[in-house]
């Protein structure tokens, strides 16, 4: 545990570099072999020849706070922002009026001509305050108040402004006439639309069931380019669908949408006309390539990540920008697993990172689209040796058929000394909510280092992605949980464990434990309360047993509010099913939680006490959601989970039997 969480022994080295604008070279910060000093080394793409960069070498990556001409930079000072001249060091206020109270300015962006700065104002002054104890004087602790927008309450007010940087109007703000209904809403992308006079604003409804792309003239009119609605949501909590990529010199842009049943790319002209699909077909775009869209306009290609045949993996694909829809896989077919790319500006080269759940990442320089490996950039050699030594039995991926229409992915990790003639207890790691997958063929995925450690103590560790998780299996899969997080995941997780036991003789269904963090903690509670004959132990880390007390930003996407959806909240809340508890339960949280705050959990603690249920409860003082604060915390919480498991769910094999067919 110390090796994993304190020393980071299983953490891969990353390769970090920046491309030069002409794509002929890249810059790496590294120690000079002769001087041992940190230098900026420049490598030629073709030859690999190395030189030390001068201070003047400019890379293609631009700091968004630096003006387009490179002469000025925006900096935060107190509550205000300043403009600093890079050459002279002189500074001046960006805004005439400094934001006050709970008002802040964010997402600042220079206009193309450097005369203006675009920004979003966030006003949280009407968001309700929560009292939080400050760990100062132990006898007389102070109380700090923080803004917390709970489900169904007031959320921050937002508006878009443009401030002039030069001339007689410098410091004055023009507010764009973009408003929200009384209940409020959110912004997705807010950016300059190819000129210094027009702004693109992606406006999202409070429940994220509607989004619009608006084109606003500074000091002028606002027009709607595109809008879509979805009975569930148009943009989920991970925000993959949000944002645009301008093409054709600003005449049109690319965006993602799931309105046709799959996450696909579309292009549309800036006047809202001539909409056309770029990626037709029954498959999902998993994500954009790199943080933003990757377009090779010179050759006419759009690049993205997908995996049409395996929801646990990710590869690079491309389609023509003309909309002909011919899907082409760029990642080699003999490299199943997880791939990432950092493209050169001309899209002819990329830093390519490849790993699987059992093999650490290797980074190489490849040509695009041939995918010819030019040279290895980071081989993680020491980690490769450690992995070969410690991973004696690779994690396996299986598919479990729950019905004619539903098959779920699962990962299975067995003890190093596994004997398939015997039966082992099962320890399930669950998340099960719309924010993330756990079953991924990627190094370091979803607590896998911890699960391997537990497996070697005599358990089969398992993780399952039920419907409702963000797998690339179509919009209907992801939206199947709309209205109530909890019931469907509970049913499918339990059914999957039963199916695993039915089809694998090594699974001992009389010894099943489950644990999870955050949303996984909630699913752990639901599993233990609603399926007490399936699960015999549960460890719920920072769960949300009262979802109506959770934050509005996340919960309302998937469940709306209790006023709109009272039945959904009643079906979702583990609190309402606590009487079903039979097995052993450990609840873990931190008293410094800012999101899944401790009062959300204390209501369940009170209910279990009222019911006379035996359970265990651990509170880490002043720790937040990740339980990382304080020396030793990360190791301690994993050791706590391990001890509780060993003491309450007998490890090791028992004589086997033939599974029922």
Structural overview:
By secondary structure, this protein is α+β, with helices and mostly antiparallel strands. It has a domain of 253 residues: 3-Layer(aba) Sandwich (Rossmann fold), CATH 3.40.50. It contains 10 helices and 39 strands. Strands 31, 32, 33, 34, 35, 36, 37, 38 and 39 form a 9-stranded mixed β-sheet that branches. Strands 22, 23, 24, 25 and 26 form a 5-stranded antiparallel β-sheet that branches. Strand 31 and strand 32 form a beta hairpin. It is globular. The two termini are 39 Å apart. The mean pLDDT is 95. This is Peptidase S9B dipeptidylpeptidase IV domain protein. InterPro entries: AB_hydrolase_fold (IPR029058), Peptidase_S9_cat (IPR001375), Peptidase_S9B_N (IPR002469), Serine_Prot_S9B/DPPIV (IPR050278). GO terms for molecular function: dipeptidyl-peptidase activity; serine-type peptidase activity.
Amount of helix: 10-25%
Beta-strand content bin:
25-35%
CATH architecture of the domain at 398-650: 3-Layer(aba) Sandwich
- Distinct helical segment count: 10
Main sheet overview: 9 strands, mixed
Shape: globular
Radius of gyration equals 27 Å
Let me know the CATH homologous superfamily of the domain at 398-650.
Alpha/Beta hydrolase fold, catalytic domain
> Uncertain runs with pLDDT below 50, 5 residues or more?
none
